[in-house]
Specification:
Number of strands: 29
Oligomer: single chain
Strand content: 15-25%
Strand order of the largest sheet: 21-22-23-20-19-26-27
Structural class: alpha/beta
Largest sheet: 7 strands, mixed
Radius of gyration: 34 Å
Number of helices: 39
Length: about 900
C-alpha cells in the first residue's frame, strides 16, 4: 500500500501516483480528506488514475510506502495501514519532527517537492508516463514550488519539471488547477469584473461576458479570467477591460473544443485553443462588447450533449436480482455500475464497489435493492457535457443516467460516465488544425479526386442501394428501347460527389420528348404522374417518397425579369445545362446502357465543387430568376462553400435593382420556407441580412444582437424538441418567425403574415404564440405554481408557443415547469367520466365540464389519487353545493 497525509495537496497526490509507477503491483490509497482543488481534479480524472479508497486493513501488509510526510499525526486513518506493514518505506522532503515514523528505508531530500524525488527515479528507470500522469506530477512540483519561483525551489525541481515537459504534459490541465496569488490591483480589478458580469446561454453553453474600465494599467487580465470563470461557473468567460489607450480582451474556455484562436481571429486574438487574448486600439468598450456578442452568436459551435456521448443501449438490472448475479453481469460487461429498475421505473443505481462490500459480508444472495443508491442524479438527453462534467466534479459522481421522454420522463436511455466525458473531450482535443471543414469534398474510399472523375459507375455501385441502382439502369434501358436518350443531372450528382445524403428527387433530361417518356415510365413503374405540357416537363411520384422530374432538353429565354420561362426549342445537352442556376448543378451523367455513368462537365462544375465555390453561369442569371439569390445563400451554408466574388457582385446589383419585387409572392414564400428546412437557418438569415434581402422578406424587422441570440436559442430548443414525441410536429418556420416578429407591434406582425400568405391556422398559431408567451414568462417566473395552475396556463398553447416559451426563458425554473408539463401533467386525466356523473343523478350540461375540471385540478395537485377518492371528491363537492 502507498499512503500519504490527510488534506492532501497536489504534491501528495502526485507522489502517490508517481510511487505507484516505481512500485509495480502496489495500491495507491487516496486519503479521505483532500484540498478543494485536489478534490476537483480527482473527481474529474479518478478513473484514469491508479487510486484506491481506504479500506479496513485485513492481516499483515508486506510493505507500506509513505510519501510526502513521515509524521504519524498527519497520516490520519492511513496510520492503521502502516502499523500493520512488515516493512515501511518513507519518501519525503519535509524537515524532521518529534512524531516521525521509523522506516526500513527512508529517503528524505532537501527539494521543493516530494514529487521531484520520485520523478528522478521514474527518469532513471525509464518508466513510461501518460499525458495525464505527466501533467499531475508537474502540478505537484509547480504547486509546492510556487511555479518554480518559491524560496524552496532547487535546480532538481526545475530539471524534473523540464523532464515532464518532454514527456508531453498538458498545459491546459496545469492552468486549470493551479491557483497563483493575486496582487492588490488584480484583486480590485477582479471585483470590478465580477460586478460588470452578464450571463448568456448560447448553443447550450453558459457564457459570461464581463466588461469594466480602469484608470491605470493592471497586469494579468488573462490570469484573472480563470478566476472569473470559476467564480461564475461558466463554460466560456470573456473579459473586456478598458485601460490606457485601448481595450484588453481575454477569453478562457473550460475545454479546447471551441478553437478560440479561430473563433476570435477577426479581432486579432492570439493564444491556444482554450485561451486567447488581444489588445484592441479603441476606447469604445460598448462597441467592442457588441462585436464580441455578434461573433459568438454567429460562430460559436453547439455544445455536445449527453445524448451524443452516452453509452447506449443501457444495461439495467431488476431490483430483486441478487448481488452475486449483478456482480457477474458488471464484470462481464466491464461496467462500474448500472441503474436498478422496478416496474419499468429507475429506482436507484448500484456500483460495483458496493456489491464487493456485500460479497465480502457473504450477502451474495441478497437483492441488489438493499445496497443501491436511491437518490440518483440524472440528466436529460439535451444536457451539455459541460454541465455533466460540472455535476460529476461537484458531487463526486462517477456515472449519470440519461433519461428519455418515455414513461413520464423517467426511463433511462443511456448512461454517461467520467470516461465518456473524457473521451469526448479527447476526441475534440485530437482534431488537427488542418481538419476538413464542413462541405469539404470527401474522397470516395481512396478514389480519385472529384475533378479527375470522368465516370460515376463505380461511385453509383458503392453509394446507391441495389434498388436505386436497378431503377437507374432500368430507366436507361427503357430509353434505349424507345430510341430516347436520358441523362441524370443536377443536385443528385452534386451530392453524390460531395458524399452528402442523397435527395429523394431525381432530375432527368430527356431527348426528344420527356412527357411521352414519363407516360411510358408510369405504365412500367406505377406511381402518380403530373404533366406540364406547355413546359415539356413531367413529374412521376413513386413509392417510398421517390420523385422523378423529367424535362425535355431545351433552351429557355425569359420574356421579362422574374417571368416564368418560355420554351424556345429543343437543344443540345450543353445548352440545356446552361440554363441552370450554378456550375455545381450543371453536371450530367448518362443513363444509357452503352455509356452508363459517363460524366458531362461543360462548365467546370467539378472544379468548383473541389474549390468549394458557388458560381453562376452568366451575368443576367439573377435578373432572369431572382430566387437564385436565396438559393445561392442556402447552398453556401449547406455545403460550407463560398459565393464567388463575381457572383456576389451580381447578387449585389440584383438586390439594388429590386428584382425580388417582380417575383410572385407564392414562389418567393416557397423559396423562403426552404431556408427553415436547412440545418442552420439562422446563419442563412444573417447572410441575407448582410446582403440586404432580409428587410425585403420581412419588412419592419431590423435584427440586432438580442434577436440573433433569440434565434440561436430557438435553434437549440428545436434540437431539444426533436428528441421528444409530439402529437403534431413543431413547425420550424413558425418558431423562427416567432423569434423574428416577437418585438413588433401586433399590427406590423399581421402585415408581414399577410405578405407570407400563410393559412389561417398557421397565422393564428404564430400570432397567438407572440401574444401569449410574454405573459406566461412573467407568471411562470414568479412564485411557485401549483400543478393545476400550470396546466391551466399552458394547456391551450400550441406546440410552437410552448417551444417559443422554452427558447425565450433563461430561467431553469421555467424550463423545469415545461418539462414537468410535457412529460407528465398534460397527460394526467381523471378516471371519472361523464357516465359516472349521470349515475349520480346529474343531468348533462355545463356543470359536467366544470365538475370534471375541478376533479382534474385536485388530481394534479395531489389532493386525490384513486378513483374512489375522485368519486368521494365529487360527492363532497355536490354536498357543499347543496348546502349553499
Amino acid at each position: 500500500m502507498i499512503v500519504t497525509h490527510s488534506h492532501a495537496d497536489f504534491d501528495a497526490l502526485a507522489a502517490l501516483v508517481a510511487a505507484s509507477k516505481i512500485y509495480p503491483g502496489s495500491a495507491a490509497v487516496l486519503p479521505e480528506l483532500l484540498n478543494a482543488n485536489v478534490r476537483r481534479f480527482v473527481n474529474l480524472y479518478r478513473e484514469l488514475l491508479p487510486l484506491k479508497t481506504q479500506e479496513e486493513p485485513q492481516g499483515l501488509l508486506p510493505l507500506a510506502v509513505v510519501v510526502d510526510t513521515r509524521r504519524k499525526s498527519r497520516l490520519g486513518p492511513a496510520l492503521a495501514l502502516v502499523e500493520r506493514a512488515a516493512e515501511v518505506h518513507i519518501i519525503d522532503h519535509h524537515p524532521p519532527a518529534a512524531d516521525d515514523l521509523e522506516g526500513n528505508e527512508v529517503i528524505v531530500e532537501p527539494v521543493g517537492a516530494t514529487t521531484t524525488i520520485l520523478v528522478e527515479a521514474i527518469r532513471q528507470h525509464r518508466v513510461a508516463l501518460s499525458q495525464l500522469e505527466a501533467s499531475l506530477l508537474a502540478l505537484g512540483i509547480y504547486e509546492n514550488t510556487g511555479s518554480l519561483s518559491g524560496i524552496m525551489t532547487t535546480a532538481r525541481d526545475a530539471a524534473a519539471a523540464a523532464f515532464l515537459w518532454e514527456e508531453g504534459l498538458k498545459m491546459e490541465i496545469i492552468n486549470e488547477h493551479l491557483r497563483p496569488s493575486l496582487s492588490a490591483a488584480q484583486k480590485a480589478l477582479l471585483e470590478k469584473l465580477v460586478e460588470g458580469s452578464e450571463l448568456y446561454e448560447l448553443r447550450r453553453r453558459r457564457i459570461l461576458i464581463s466588461s469594466t474600465a480602469m484608470n491605470e494599467y493592471v497586469e494579468g487580465v488573462a490570469v484573472l479570467i480563470r478566476h472569473l470563470q470559476e467564480i461564475e461557473d461558466v463554460e466560456l468567460a470573456v473579459a473586456l477591460v478598458r485601460m490606457e489607450k485601448g481595450v484588453y480582451l481575454a477569453v478562457k474556455a473550460l475545454s479546447d473544443e471551441m478553437d478560440l484562436p479561430g473563433l476570435f481571429s477577426a479581432v486579432g486574438a492570439r493564444g491556444h485553443r482554450s485561451a486567447v487574448s488581444a489588445f484592441l486600439a479603441t476606447d469604445d468598450l460598448a462597441a467592442v462588447k457588441n462585436n464580441i456578442l455578434e461573433l459568438l452568436e454567429g460562430y460559436i459551435p453547439p455544445a455536445l450533449t449527453a445524448g451524443e456521448v452516452a453509452t447506449a443501449p443501457l444495461v439495467t438490472v431488476p431490483s430483486e436480482e441478487t448481488v452475486a448475479r449483478v456482480m457477474d453481469l458488471l464484470y462481464d460487461k466491464g461496467f462500474g455500475g448500472c441503474p436498478v429498475m422496478e416496474e419499468g421505473r429507475m429506482v436507484g443505481m448500484i456500483a460495483r464497489r458496493d456489491l464487493a462490500k456485500a460479497l465480502r459480508s457473504n450477502l451474495g444472495h441478497a437483492p441488489v435493492k438493499s445496497f443501491m443508491k436511491r437518490q440518483v442524479m440524472t440528466a436529460g438527453a439535451d444536457c451539455s457535457i459541460t454541465a455533466l462534467r460540472r455535476m460529476m466534479v461537484e458531487h463526486n459522481i462517477g456515472r449519470i443516467p440519461v433519461l428519455g421522454s418515455g414513461r413520464g420522463g423517467i426511463e433511462p436511455v443511456g448512461i454517461v460516465t467520467r470516461s465518456d466525458i473524457l473521451r469526448a473531450l479527447e476526441r475534440l482535443d485530437r482534431r488537427s488544425g488542418a481538419s476538413e471543414q464542413k462541405g469539404c469534398l470527401i474522397k470516395f474510399r481512396e478514389k480519385k479526386p472529384v475533378v479527375e472523375v470522368d465516370n460515376l459507375d463505380e461511385v453509383i455501385k458503392k453509394e446507391l442501394s441495389p434498388r436505386q441502382q436497378g431503377l437507374l439502369l432500368m430507366i436507361g434501358q427503357r430509353a434505349e428501347r424507345l430510341e430516347t436518350r436520358v441523362y441524370l443531372v443536377g443536385g443528385f450528382i452534386r451530392d453524390l460527389l460531395l458524399g452528402y445524403r442523397l435527395p429523394q428527387d431525381l432530375d432527368l433530361v430527356v431527348f426528344p420528348d420527356a412527357v411521352a417518356f414519363a407516360r411510358d415510365l408510369e405504365k412500367l413503374l406505377g406511381g402518380k404522374l403530373h404533366v406540364y405540357e406547355q413546359f415539356g416537363t413531367a413529374t412521376l411520384y413513386l413509392e417510398e417518397g421517390l420523385r422523378l422530374d423529367l424535362a425535355t432538353a431545351r433552351q429557355e429565354f425569359y420574356a421579362a425579369p422574374a417571368a416564368l420561362p418560355r420554351v424556345e426549342e429543343t437543344s443540345s445537352l450543353k445548352s440545356d445545362l446552361f440554363r441552370r442556376d450554378f456550375t455545381i448543378n450543371t453536371l450530367a451523367c448518362s443513363l444509357m446502357p452503352g455509356s452508363f455513368g459517363k460524366l458531362y462537365d461543360f462548365f467546370a462544375g467539378r472544379e468548383d465543387l473541389s474549390r468549394g465555390v458557388i458560381r453562376t453561369l452568366y451575368n443576367l442569371s439573377f435578373a432572369d430568376d431572382p430566387l437564385r439569390i436565396l438559393r445561392a445563400v442556402r447552398f453556401e451554408h449547406r455545403f460550407g462553400f463560398t459565393i464567388d466574388e463575381n457572383t456576389m457582385e451580381l447578387i449585389g446589383r440584383a438586390v439594388k435593382s429590386k428584382v425580388l419585387e417582380k417575383v410572385s409572392r407564392h414562389r418567393l414564400n416557397h423559396e423562403v420556407s426552404l431556408i427553415y428546412k436547412e440545418r442552420e437557418p439562422v446563419q442563412i438569415l444573417r447572410r441575407l441580412d448582410q446582403i440586404g434581402v432580409l428587410s425585403f422578406l420581412y419588412p419592419s424587422i431590423r435584427p440586432d444582437t438580442n434577436i440573433w441570440q433569440r434565434l440561436n436559442r430557438i435553434g437549440d430548443t428545436l434540437e431539444w424538441a426533436r428528441r421528444r414525441e409530439w402529437k403534431s410536429e413543431p413547425d420550424p418556420e413558425l418558431l423562427y418567425l416567432g423569434g423574428l416578429l416577437y418585438d413588433l407591434e401586433p399590427e406590423k406582425r399581421f402585415v408581414i403574415m399577410r405578405r407570407l400568405h400563410f393559412s389561417r391556422e398557421r397565422t393564428e398559431k404564430l400570432l397567438g404564440a407572440c401574444r401569449e408567451v410574454p405573459g406566461a414568462l412573467d407568471e411562470l417566473s414568479q412564485e411557485e405554481l401549483r400543478p393545476s395552475r400550470l396546466v391551466k396556463r399552458l394547456e391551450d398553447f400550441s406546440v410552437e408557443a410552448l417551444l417559443l416559451l422554452h427558447a425565450l426563458s433563461r430561467s431553469g425554473k421555467i424550463k423545469e415547469y415545461l418539462r414537468l408539463y410535457l412529460d407528465s401533467l398534460q397527460h394526467l386525466r381523471p378516471r371519472l367520466k361523464g357516465g359516472d356523473l349521470k349515475k349520480l343523478g346529474l343531468e348533462p350540461g355545463p356543470q359536467f365540464q366544470e365538475i370534471l375540471q375541478k376533479v382534474r385540478a385536485a388530481l394534479l395537485d395531489g389532493q386525490i389519487r384513486t378513483p374512489e377518492e375522485e368519486l368521494q371528491f365529487v360527492l363532497s363537492l355536490l354536498e357543499r353545493r347543496k348546502e349553499d
